[in-house]
Amino acid sequence: MADEIKNPGTEEEYQPDLMTLQDEDGNEVTFEVIDALDHKGVHYLAVVEYAEDEEDVNEDAQLVILSVGEDDEGEYLDVVEDDETLLEVSKLFEQRLSDQFEIESPAQTDSQARLPARRDLLRFI
């Protein structure tokens, strides 16, 4: 008999990796980190605005890419200002996440035009 025995409580419950940031107007925005990678010696995070309830999930949620830097005070997050670097890192995340998420590339949508507004949101992190 090849029945699989499942023990309740042995599966780990999903716990999102959340972080709360302030936008330039002082409003708190909670993001979920969905992936991270290193590229050319810099660590990057791919985040989306967090929705606590599944019914609140935005099907058109924008992926925000942040770089992790370090100074005398410790680690900090920053937006990717260089368009070429942003495109390179975006493609890497798209390749990594395409199995889990439906991703529209900038060529398929006007998301590239919407991206600068999202960058401004996180300018003062």
Keywords:
single chain, 125 residues, alpha+beta, five-stranded antiparallel beta sheet, 5 strands, 21% helix, disordered C terminus
Structure, described:
The termini are far apart. The radius of gyration is 17 Å and the shape is globular. Strand 4 and strand 5 (about 75-80) form a beta hairpin. The chain has helices at about 85-95, 110-120; strands at about 15-20, 30-40, 40-50, 65-70, 75-80. The chain is of the alpha+beta class. It is built from two helices and five strands. Strands 1-2-3-4-5 form a five-stranded antiparallel beta sheet. Helices cover about 20% and strands about 30% of the residues.
What is the gyration radius calculated from CA atoms? Answer: 17 Å
Distance between the termini: 57 Å
Mean of pLDDT: 75
- Largest sheet strand order: 1-2-3-4-5
The total of helices stands at 2
Give the fraction of residues assigned to helices. Answer: 10-25%
Give a brief rundown of this model.
The protein is α+β, with helices and mostly antiparallel strands and 125 residues long. It contains 2 helices and 5 strands; from the N terminus they run βββββαα.
Topology of this protein?
Elements lengths: L16 E6 L5 E12 L2 E8 L14 E8 L2 E6 L3 H15 L13 H11 L4
Antiparallel strand pairs: 1-2, 2-3, 3-4, 4-5
